[in-house]
Amino acid sequence: MTVKEKIENLRAELHRHNYNYYIQNAPEISDKEFDDMMHELQNLEQEHPEYKDDTSPTMRVGSDLNKNFTQYSHKYPMLSLGNTYSENEVAEFYERAKKSLNEDFEMCCEMKYDGTSISLTYEDGKLVRAVTRGDGEKGDDVTDNVKTIRSIPLVLHGNNYPKSFEIRGEILMPWEVFEELNREKESREESLFANPRNAASGTLKLQNSSIVASRKLDAYFYYLLGEELPYDGHYENLQAASTWGFKISKAMRKCHSLEEIFDYIKYWDVERKNLPVATDGIVLKVNSLKQQKNLGFTAKSPRWAIAYKFQAERALTRLNLVTYQVGRTGAVTPVANLDPVQLSGTIVKRASLHNADIIDGLDLHIGDMVYVEKGGEIIPKITGVDTEARSFMLGEKVKFITNCPECGSKLIRYEGEAAHYCPNETACPPQIKGKIEHFISRKAMNIDGLGPETVDMFYRIGLIKNTADLYKLTVNDIKGLERMGEKSAENIINGIAQSREVPFERVIFALGIRFVGETVAKKIAKAFKNIEALEKANSESLVSVDEIGERIAQSILSYFANESNRELVNQLKAAGLQFQLSEEDLSNHTDKLAGQSIVISGVFTHHSRDEYKDIIERNGGKNVGSISTKTSFILAGENMGPAKLEKANKLGIKLMNEEEFLDLIS
Ligand SMILES: NC(=O)c1ccc[n+]([C@@H]2O[C@H](COP(=O)([O-])OP(=O)(O)OC[C@H]3O[C@@H](n4cnc5c(N)ncnc54)[C@H](O)[C@@H]3O)[C@@H](O)[C@H]2O)c1
Ligand SMILES: [Zn+2]
């Protein structure tokens, strides 16, 4: 590989990881791995200025911009921080500042909170706007969501705050809330958040502020900006801000020597484990704003600050075996079986290896001594191999299996996906069981009294082979089976019978077509109205439905192209399930708002907000959370927020009152 290719590869990889991290909130690699790659690229670019490129990930802040929000330009750019994992580089940073300033200075040390950054603007003591970092130049306006965070003051205390200022800080999801949220997600078989930071930034970008409110976010503030701040000292300004009602960390301290700085680092590396929120390092800032100005900025970060990041806690242990799990979707996950080892308070015996690329990247061998890290995840993972510890006793190189461990089918890998899949959807045991479990789950057919264990048992003893078999069961078939009395048997059979009334959209969801979640199922039900029309749909008619792209369309097509899926649908139809919209649904639906994006704001008299949301959907419109150029109109009640009103005026978006709206759809 030439240097140029190496640089291009690194750039492409870093762009991809930025996207996974900031937009998808689902990183594939650890922060340390990301930072190491970034440093490698920085070094190469420095040695080879001939390959300079302004779009390189080294030149810009990773972007969280999301098309569902209105964007707002920052008055002062929101940058990242230079970071290091080495104490030597902290010392070098300190010496550089000392030399450039050439006068006395103080260094403010503070915790590096690991959440997502936010900029708040206050005017006359009131919160007027909350904007994410975005790409550093402009961010997403998330004011409505931020207003639900209780520790953020909407109105300031006292009266000695500047008339207009900006304050920046970190929005965080406390550990406790994060763990609870992931437990809930796990029980619903949804993918988990990798860490509280991704959970916080994902939550902040939700369209529904009431869900944001239920997630109990918190926030700490660490920069005050404006033309008329009370002090020249960063530390002093923040102490003032705490009297106005902002949450300012008690862990801030001004240091006057490198020794004091290292004491601070040592102390907090241990003590931070007792904090209720995640931290990933220490931030050092030259305290005087005047001196900060003298030191200035690079394209991406200030020269007067640096982040020292803590190493994630890790343990070293032996890899004994790699086993493979087949999930409900057929995805195959490699699992490392380890010599038990103590890590952050628990004993770890197994760790995820994610996919074949990760295994190859580690050059993993059986018997290797491997590093295990937890990094906020529920399942720990392997982050490295101690190659020095290899001896002649080393076992075989780990090779990803080629056939399904459950049914023997040859595994496949979809274009652009990291995972291997077993394609034998209709006969691979964990996939069948998984399909049935999904089918009976609460958001699908919601069959009372029937849980995964019972389904597992029915399958094991050959009572059911697919979801349609459920509808053939009788009380006599199942009473007397493992822990199954007459009463529970009747319950189950009743529950199954009642599920015949479950509406079409949930039946579609229950089929478990890849990529067809609850929302997509709803859209499909509305668009096609019955299963026959859906079976006949082609790629064109599918992608013309809102929120359905190529990937989902392909998946639906290949589902119905499969003979045994069509056969199953026929059996379910014969069993009496709802395979068309109800009369009521059909008569209630119109296309009057088709293609329109509508924002609801204010208080209403004729219907509640939720009723209006429903009315909009039933008439083919789309509810959106915040105003943008794509908004068709605003359904405006009384007391619409001033920020929203201003934005609507600025973008020239029409306001419609309740009566006008009801006229429109009547
Ligand atoms: N794992 C991955 O795939 C992946 C991908 C992209 C980025 N990342 C991680 O994200 C980092 C880049 O993110 P980033 O640009 O937000 O940088 P960063 O998180 O390393 O540091 C900058 C941020 O720190 C926050 N911060 C917390 N406490 C602070 C304080 N007291 N004072 C000032 N700022 C404080 C601010 O939000 C600021 O934007 C990378 O270094 C990497 O570790 C990981
Ligand atoms: Zn299989």
From TrEMBL:
Belongs to the NAD-dependent DNA ligase family. LigA subfamily. SMART domains: BRCT (SM00292), HhH1 (SM00278), LIGANc (SM00532). NAD(+) binds at residues 31-35, 80-81, 110, 133, 170, 285, 309. Residues 588-666 form the BRCT domain. One of its GO terms (cellular component) is cytosol. Pfam families: BRCT, DNA_ligase_aden, DNA_ligase_ZBD, HHH_2, HHH_5, OB_DNA_ligase. Keywords: DNA damage, DNA repair, DNA replication, Ligase, Magnesium, Manganese, Metal-binding, NAD, Zinc. It comes from Jilunia laotingensis. Its EC number is 6.5.1.2. SUPFAM superfamilies: BRCT domain (SSF52113), DNA ligase/mRNA capping enzyme, catalytic domain (SSF56091), Nucleic acid-binding proteins (SSF50249), RuvA domain 2-like (SSF47781). The keyword Oxidoreductase does not apply. Its cofactor is Mg(2+); Mn(2+). CDD domains: LIGANc (cd00114). This is DNA ligase. The keyword Zinc applies. It catalyses: NAD(+) + (deoxyribonucleotide)n-3'-hydroxyl + 5'-phospho-(deoxyribonucleotide)m = (deoxyribonucleotide)n+m + AMP + beta-nicotinamide D-nucleotide. Zn(2+) binds at residues 404, 407, 422, 428. NCBIfam families: dnlj, PRK07956.1. One of its GO terms (molecular function) is DNA ligase (NAD+) activity. The gene is ligA. The active site is at 112 (n6-amp-lysine intermediate). DNA ligase that catalyzes the formation of phosphodiester linkages between 5'-phosphoryl and 3'-hydroxyl groups in double-stranded DNA using NAD as a coenzyme and as the energy source for the reaction. It is essential for DNA replication and repair of damaged DNA. InterPro entries: BRCT_dom (IPR001357), BRCT_dom_sf (IPR036420), DisA/LigA_HHH (IPR041663), DNA_ligase (IPR001679), DNA_ligase_CS (IPR033136), DNAligase_adenylation (IPR013839), DNAligase_N (IPR013840), Hlx-hairpin-Hlx_DNA-bd_motif (IPR003583). GO terms for biological process: DNA repair; DNA replication.
